[in-house]
Amino acid sequence: MKLRANLIIGGALFALAILVGLLAPWLAHTDPVMDANLLNAEEPPSWTWWFGTDDQGRDIYSRVVYGARVSLTVGIVSQLINSVIGVALGLSAGYWGGWWDDVVNGLTNVMLAIPSLIFALAIMAVLGPGLTSLLIALGLTNWSFTCRIARASALSLRSQGYVQAATVLGYGDLRIMTTQLLPNMLGPIVVIGTLGMGSAVLSEAALSFLGLGVRPPFPSWGSMLSDARDQITTAPWLSVFPGLAIFLTVLGLNLLGDGLRDILDPQSRSRRT
Amino acid sequence: MTGAPLIEVEDLRIDLDDGSRRVAAVEGISFRIDRGETFGLVGESGCGKSITALALIGLLRQPLSIGGGAIRFEGREIQQLSAGRQRELRGNRIAMIFQEPMTALNPVSPVGRQIAEMFVLHKGKSWREANQLAVEALASVRVPAPERRVKDYPHQLSGGMRQRVMIAIALACGPDLLIADEPTTALDVTVQAEIIELMRNLCAERGTAILMISHDLGLVANVCRRVAVMYAGRIVEERGSADIFRAPSHPYTQGLVASLPRLGSRAALGRTRLKEIAGVVPAITNFPHGCRFNPRCAHATDICRTTVPGTDVLEAGGLVRCHHHA
């Protein structure tokens, strides 16, 4: 039952990350920003400082816990924006076809041709660093894959008997798209959404690493890694723990996406019924 | 309503445009259906009966389009109506059920919801009322325990049950015309009889006219008062359904009737071969000149190969399109 293991481990890791983010004020030992104390600078991990401290004496454990909030917010919200844009464009393009399909296709090709991180960088450069611009930048740059899938599903679903039946029964276009097409393509869309969340977490880390993410001193996993760069030989715990947090969250999301794909796949679904 | 028939098709032509040229897939189609009447359209695959039905509800899509003639619903031309008006007709005044009950229902939506949606869409009911009406609609098509069945998904129902649900959806808004395109082809023979019976009774109760489309002459004649036989895009004969068996007039219809096994006949007992019609149906891009049946017709003469036969009125009632009709 490899299929179940995917889903359970992935779901558990993702749930854990969300829980940590939600319960940060209770889980953290110290305030992640204010409790700097140079007397405790660069302590290695110990019973007092679980994950060690940084060069300003801030508790890495508390900062990682609070960092979950930024990473997950960015991951979830930006991917939601991507999914909504991708589904809206892809679904309508596949269903209507014609010039609108050409426009959407062209747009998708352009988006696929530009590396999304570079595009996000450009948007960040215009909007300036910060959480909101991070959400906008990542939310506008990763929808092309969702769009492709939605379009392909809409194209094949459009010729299904029940979609034609709905037309014959007098359903309007919007109603057909929302009641007939969307529910039937939700499986792959959800899977891609989960995988996309993982890559959004990574993109957040990358952008924060480049100094374009959340403004210091507020912690995010990416910016913590960025700060730890200079001390990677002298104080490896500074990069190991935020790195581990990113790794486990992304791994969890990928496993979850994999597991969801297994159960949402129409073929395995028909096997169950 | 005035004396206008419910639906009237006059000299309809449907073009097939494959990009380089246009050919008429269907032409010279004329028939009328009155309120509460039952009318059958019979023909082999590809003779144009299904696209004629699609034209009636304004749903021809590229590469097909209406090339001429008129379709009038209660005296109003359907092509003249706006897209929105056409949509109001569909499902509400003109409903349709399909050949494949397996694929005509949305697999991710409970059947009750799919029925209820019709009341919400066309009658402006609230979902609460609509759900209640859906249970009643399901009961009217004799689905047992409808209040539990409304929550079922299509894959939990058998083929016959699904077709009952389709009928419930189609008749939900009390349409004036029900188009049934091969409604029972995918079902077992016993279930087929039940479904046909149900459809006929429900429509008779509510005064809904039926346009039934099938390749099964016997089935259509059983359900419908009048039958039109199509061959290669034209109606070749239109008769009362009893007459068509007793005295078919067009050579094609004669061939069809002769090819049916009859209970107790020598053919059914296996002593003689069933009659067949020699040859194959011509391709749509390659219809013969004159009467399209002439290459397969035993009575064909020169005029059949050069001149398209007109529609003649038979003394016994009915119409036939043949130069040498009986």
Key phrases:
A: 273 residues, mainly alpha, MetI-like fold, 12 helices, 74% helix, B: 326 residues, alpha/beta, four-stranded antiparallel sheet, 11 helices, 32% helix
Report on this model:
The complex is a heterodimer of chains A (273) and B (326). Chain A has one domain (2-272): MetI-like fold (Orthogonal Bundle). Helices cover 74% and strands 0% of the residues of chain A. Chain A has helices spanning 2-22, 24-27, 60-96, 98-113, 116-127, 131-139, 144-158, 161-168, 173-209, 221-228, 237-264, 266-272. Chain B has a domain at 225-326. Chain B is 32% helix and 22% strand. The two termini of chain B are 38 Å apart. Classes of the chains: A mainly alpha (273), B alpha/beta (326). The interface between A and B is medium-sized, with 19 and 28 residues.
**How many angstroms separate the termini of chain A?**
18 Å
CATH class of chain A: Mainly Alpha
Task: Give the helix tally of chain A.
Answer: 12
Fraction of residues in β-strands of chain A: under 5%
| Sequence of secondary-structure elements of chain A | HHHHHHHHHHHH
Mean pLDDT, all residues of chain B: 86
Set out the fold topology.
The complex is a heterodimer of chains A (273) and B (326).
Chain A lengths: L1 H21 L1 H4 L32 H37 L1 H16 L2 H12 L3 H9 L4 H15 L2 H8 L4 H37 L11 H8 L8 H28 L1 H7 L1
Helix pairs in contact in A: 1-3, 1-11, 3-4, 3-6, 3-7, 3-9, 3-11, 4-7, 5-6, 7-9, 8-9, 9-10, 9-11, 10-11
Chain B lengths: L6 E11 L4 E12 L4 E5 L6 H8 L7 E10 L2 E2 L5 H7 L4 E4 L13 H13 L3 H14 L5 H4 L9 H13 L5 E5 L7 H18 L2 E6 L2 H7 L2 E6 L2 E7 H6 L4 H8 L43 H5 L5 E2 L5 E2 L6
Parallel strand pairs in B: 3-8, 3-9, 6-7, 7-8
Antiparallel strand pairs in B: 1-2, 1-4, 4-5, 9-10, 10-12, 11-12
Helix pairs in contact in B: 3-4, 3-6, 4-6, 6-7
Task: Give me a quick take on this structure.
The complex is a heterodimer of chains A (273) and B (326). Chain A has 273 residues and is mostly helical. Chain A has helices at residues 2-22, 24-27, 60-96, 98-113, 116-127, 131-139, 144-158, 161-168, 173-209, 221-228, 237-264, 266-272.
